[in-house]
Amino acid sequence: xxxxxxxxxxxxxxxxxxILSEKYNIPHISTGDIFRYNIKNETELGKKAKEYIEKxxxxxxxxxxxIVEERLxxxxxxSGFILDGFPRTIPQAEELDRILLQRGxxxxxxxxxxxxxxEIVQRLSGRRVCxxxxxxxxxxxxxxxxxxxxxxxGGRIVQRDDDxxxxxxxxxxxxxxxxxxxxxxxxxKGLLYTVEGKEKIExxxxxxxxxxxEAAQKHGI
Length: 221
Ligand code: AMP
Hints:
Radius of gyration: 17 Å
Number of strands: 8
CATH class: Alpha Beta
Strand content: 5-15%
Bound molecules: adenosine monophosphate
């Protein structure tokens, strides 16, 4: 199954993508994670991406598309994948169509997780992430059992630099300006399913799984 998750930053795409990835045994591809990995390892890509990410802006399309194109060539993507945080612009979506079409495939289902802006700001400012495995936590909604330590891998849990309030506001503006038009783009293709991002992760997961199963049946996947 080739699934795409859409939604504002902090809507819960990463968390849901990890759950779907385990359930369907398909890789979770997060461009944000790829950029953070490169920033941590101080690669050329990381240096370029950092300039934009710090400001709450998008990394240029050309750079981002190249990374995804390479990642999708890997063997583990043959039976499907979950895209989280890509595409984020119309040109990226068009490039993705081109890449998949070359292989005679396309996206099967787009799940848009909707959360109001006010709630996004609250969620992101309380979000924490494991430095080692990338698992997300929230100081209020989803705290780690042992403070500052990941329950999955024992890694250190920190606040992402771009989750600081002023950057969050920029990221939201960027989302509305550049990413939200994708909702229309996929709606027109008949691939879009919107679920409401709930306060409790398991409630959102229930909705997401139900939607994916229904869509898969409808499209005969
Ligand atoms: P995320 O973890 O998905 O919120 O991504 C963190 C940051 O990485 C974003 O705020 C962007 O600056 C950058 N980024 C991630 N995915 C993309 C993308 N598809 N296009 C451009 N920039 C991206």
